[in-house]
Amino acid sequence: MSVQLQSKATQAASQADLANAIRFLAIDAVEKAASGHPGMPMGMADVAAVLFSRFLKFDASDPNWPDRDRFILSAGHGSMLLYAILHLTGYADVTLDEIKAFRQWGSKTPGHPEYGHTSGVEMTTGPLGQGLATAVGFSLAERLANARHGDALVDHYTYVIAGDGCLMEGISQEAISLAGHLKLSKLIVLFDDNQISIDGATSLSTSDDQLARFRASGWSVRRIDGHNPDEIATAIEEERQTGRPSLIACRTIIGYGAPERQGTEKAHGAPLGAAQIAAAREVLKWPHAPFEIPNAVLSAWRAIGARGHAERMAWADRCRQQGANVPKALEGETEIPATYRKAVDALRSRFAAERPNIASRQASQQVLDAIAPALPALIGGSADLTHSNLTHAKSQKSVAAGAFDGSYIHYGIREHGMAAAMNGIALHGGFIPYGGTFLSFADYSRPAIRLAALMGIRVIHVMTHDSIGLGEDGPTHQPVEHFAALRAIPNLLVFRPADAIETLESWQCAVDAQTRPSVLCLSRQALPAFRDDADGQNKVALGAYVVTEPQGGRDVTLIATGSEVTIALEASRLLAAENIRAAVVSAPCFELFLEQPEKYRASVLGTAPRIGIEAAIQGDWSRWVGDTGEFIGMTGFGASAPASVLYREFNITPSAVADAARRAIAGKGRGH
Amino acid sequence: MSVQLQSKATQAASQADLANAIRFLAIDAVEKAASGHPGMPMGMADVAAVLFSRFLKFDASDPNWPDRDRFILSAGHGSMLLYAILHLTGYADVTLDEIKAFRQWGSKTPGHPEYGHTSGVEMTTGPLGQGLATAVGFSLAERLANARHGDALVDHYTYVIAGDGCLMEGISQEAISLAGHLKLSKLIVLFDDNQISIDGATSLSTSDDQLARFRASGWSVRRIDGHNPDEIATAIEEERQTGRPSLIACRTIIGYGAPERQGTEKAHGAPLGAAQIAAAREVLKWPHAPFEIPNAVLSAWRAIGARGHAERMAWADRCRQQGANVPKALEGETEIPATYRKAVDALRSRFAAERPNIASRQASQQVLDAIAPALPALIGGSADLTHSNLTHAKSQKSVAAGAFDGSYIHYGIREHGMAAAMNGIALHGGFIPYGGTFLSFADYSRPAIRLAALMGIRVIHVMTHDSIGLGEDGPTHQPVEHFAALRAIPNLLVFRPADAIETLESWQCAVDAQTRPSVLCLSRQALPAFRDDADGQNKVALGAYVVTEPQGGRDVTLIATGSEVTIALEASRLLAAENIRAAVVSAPCFELFLEQPEKYRASVLGTAPRIGIEAAIQGDWSRWVGDTGEFIGMTGFGASAPASVLYREFNITPSAVADAARRAIAGKGRGH
């Protein structure tokens, strides 16, 4: 279909013109910025020009058209390739002035493409491998949406440009393995196979047969000349029909056209300089001044940018025929259904009545069982720890190749690939992804979690076995630094609920957080319920709140999270026996607490000395306990033993907390 | 050679007996602990029995014999397989009582094998994929040592048992790609190809052809019946001779012998229970009581454990012939040569005299140029950022397949694989590995960095471009949370030097730190020298120290790290103009500062209000600035623009610091 879409306007400019327009905008912008990466846009311009001019389904006037093809620049350092195309095809955000302001403060053209910052940028890329792995999520979301809404409304491809760096990163294996397993037939990876990386020839560090590798994961593969438009077009056309994800290795020359730089690592990451630019203008027969695009070429590109308009209109008609809410659902802007709210309220009432003594991972299982049927946008999964993370809701059917009506994904032992795929599912729109692993393995997914935070997208990580409380598996599996490490990531919500109701409230916050990812840190071990308020005020949303306030003012405030709230409560009872008045504060989410009004925060923290309790390293607890307080937690790695033994041996106990409280009070004086 | 090593004692017990001894120790220990993973030891017992009885070169009486074969249990949850073998072969650490104390506090048999805790455990495993990737480092170190000391002294294999989890983790791809490229012919991976993972059949989440995948990276591959001792032996024997790394996919049955658990995920991670254990005793014809090993079987195993003794003695003889220091060098206990100290002193004098205004990554380059020739144990490398990290010393030749006399490794775009390989090189002994990437990509290598810290080994990470000071590449490449996240890892030294001399001193600390890994966080941008003391006292080793102390007492103390020390110094001059007396403290290493005596710390921190300055999120800075201080840094992600613009826009400037100082003084009162 799309080959025929090639318009008359396109034909007025040659394919070489289209590509050279990309090349020289990249060359000129990098030169003006005195910074950037010309090599990749110059090398992949021919491939990109064929893809956009002849295949990509898009409409530059509506960057968010839900049924557009997605284009992911996994090799994000080649950002000028994308910006050049966005400008040429007429995306409103990317004017010529923005191109000239490449890599400058406040421009729409930052060094690497940034999602949410520039229309037409599907995701933030730069950290290598992320684009490819996220594209698997995009492509999977397309199939999930297709299974729900049908071919007439959901039928688009995901195209990726990836370089050697993307393919050498380990995450790429998790991604291609998952994509091959699920037979994501509408995923096409264009590999910039230029045989050069930053250190020099790729032969310095790799001897992989990439085609054989992808084939081993069930992909359709081929190698082409990346400077031959016909070969490129034939490859894309044919690979769209294989029923499998496709790798097209495009043999290209990095820095194509700059005679003394091309084919070497020198073309990668530095401006070409005046002499090489002049030479490239000669070689490529592009006599135009910097940033100047001849009218015929610009018109041709603009026609490409408008080409999808009619198709988009036809799609909108089909949508309207199927119901008013469909387009919104496809965009992922579905309002949370009323049934969800009802399910939450019912579960809350039950938790309040039953006060269950269960692990927060078990409470989370009950939350999922309750909300999954009411929230069809929810797509669950686990990195092969389903029975431990308790992430599989009763109502969920597994997703498999050819069974995309399911809503639970067996991600395999691929934490990083899972996190990236979840990013893609969220970015695609229409779904709320969540996925489980052990909290200790947050380290494996960290680059993708960071990217979700940077992009500001709703992705929910369910991370169980959140402390030494996991017991016998020992220090490799016991997170001690992970709260601090995750809290350090800006724009990420880290929840550590302390009982069943807090777990439910944390889930509510995570579902409500439309512009940031969340991590739910859940216990392996049982946590006694202390909340029984059925009124429905979400206290976790306050970040921290007073659980018990002593009569007659505070002598000390005990602040704890998760499983340690119970310890704080027990300590307060020990202290009460000595007439020491201890308030207990639960602090399930530091980030949300920091966003509360100063007055509320002061009322929670109080003026008495403060003791912090968390079975983890101190991290930023000084912020809460202050100069006169103390922190009770871990000072190093954990150990292998039953959980109760570990708490005792590491001295995270009610009596240790009470001792610390007495010390703090002695130092500061009671009542202060 | 080693097939002939099969002793008479071995033959008195059948191969099945040897394997069943492993199986039942694992079954009984897990049952007693009421926790653990019987499935893998039961499935791989036949393979392990053949490997240890007929091939592995080791001597249980000397677990640290440098020329021993290394055995890496990458599937670390199967720890009882290893503990059973260590006990059976007579390693002193693992008595029957320790087996009975499996997973208990203080035992030698924790849930996952822990390096440094139990003799015979070559590395800590549990986080999947790490063992396989670290084994690449072991195997590479063997080749490096071989190139330096010859076949007579260095000639050993690295064997790995890896499961589906290890092979699904992305790090495995980085590892196998690097191993294949370097043709690490003495690396043999025994894949526990049991087609089961925790969620169920591996077909739930993967369709990879693992043999084809490894073949694509240049490995020799084959599939065998993992319960057929002859097939196992033939495979190992033949694969030792291929000149390439080898994958032997051992088709096994998880939980082999437990009739109602075997071949299912139920066998993986829970005790079998009395009924299944009784049934397994019947099926496997092992009528012995729990923990009871018949004498003939134990003798056979003990003979296997002693088999390598003569070979070790002969090796020691050959060592002595080559020089007294050789064994020590092979063990990695080389004393730091005097020439190293001289090189350091000379460079220090030059830095003190020249006061260079250079980036700390450039200073680091000069350090490497100076020390690499004097410290032959140093093995450098970079994850394809050599020209940016400046990690290649002039004297270093690249390592390549067949050129193992080199000392610089082009790790490729494989940060995680690099970090794990460095762990393996350090663990093998004889070398001090360092490797470079951008600090932002510490996230990619984090699981391996954590493992190095947990194991307590000397690995040096050179992480450049350590802040928004990297400029135009933007927020994907700008670390803001990475100091906090790395400082959160116990037993890891995080250095952020502020000028050339501090960079040199940081390198010295990292080289001296024999029992912990280091991260050197280095700037892209130039940092003016402020240190010119040539006396050689290593002030970085103090963690933090006073750079300038005002006359007449302090009104405020400005504490900064790295590139922000310059800002603090400028702020102190602004304040001095108003007669505000500001001390400036450089704090290049929080961890070392925390280890200083209380009195020293108090003298550095002072009693005046404190302002912390670091171009990063606040993290644990509250600890240093206290209730009356203030932190000047980042509150979110960075942006793409020239570095100077970013510092201005994010308000990390001398005047912002001076403002904060004035505020703090106003709140606290001058002179307090």
From TrEMBL, chains A, B:
<keyword id="KW-0479">Metal-binding</keyword>
<dbReference type="InterPro" id="IPR049557">
    <property type="entry name" value="Transketolase_CS"/>
</dbReference>
<dbReference type="Pfam" id="PF00456">
    <property type="entry name" value="Transketolase_N"/>
</dbReference>
<dbReference type="InterPro" id="IPR005475">
    <property type="entry name" value="Transketolase-like_Pyr-bd"/>
</dbReference>
<comment type="similarity">
    <text>Belongs to the transketolase family.</text>
</comment>
<dbReference type="Pfam" id="PF02779">
    <property type="entry name" value="Transket_pyr"/>
</dbReference>
<dbReference type="InterPro" id="IPR005474">
    <property type="entry name" value="Transketolase_N"/>
</dbReference>
<dbReference type="InterPro" id="IPR055152">
    <property type="entry name" value="Transketolase-like_C_2"/>
</dbReference>
<comment type="function">
    <text>Catalyzes the transfer of a two-carbon ketol group from a ketose donor to an aldose acceptor, via a covalent intermediate with the cofactor thiamine pyrophosphate.</text>
</comment>
<keyword id="KW-0460">Magnesium</keyword>
<dbReference type="GO" id="GO:0004802">
    <property type="term" value="F:transketolase activity"/>
</dbReference>
<dbReference type="InterPro" id="IPR029061">
    <property type="entry name" value="THDP-binding"/>
</dbReference>
<comment type="subunit">
    <text>Homodimer.</text>
</comment>
<dbReference type="InterPro" id="IPR005478">
    <property type="entry name" value="Transketolase_bac-like"/>
</dbReference>
<keyword id="KW-0106">Calcium</keyword>
<feature type="domain" description="Transketolase-like pyrimidine-binding">
    <location>
        <begin position="358"/>
        <end position="529"/>
    </location>
</feature>
<protein>
    <recommendedName>
        <fullName>Transketolase</fullName>
        <ecNumber>2.2.1.1</ecNumber>
    </recommendedName>
</protein>
<dbReference type="Pfam" id="PF22613">
    <property type="entry name" value="Transketolase_C_1"/>
</dbReference>
<dbReference type="InterPro" id="IPR033247">
    <property type="entry name" value="Transketolase_fam"/>
</dbReference>
<dbReference type="InterPro" id="IPR020826">
    <property type="entry name" value="Transketolase_BS"/>
</dbReference>
<keyword id="KW-0808">Transferase</keyword>
<keyword id="KW-0786">Thiamine pyrophosphate</keyword>
<dbReference type="InterPro" id="IPR009014">
    <property type="entry name" value="Transketo_C/PFOR_II"/>
</dbReference>
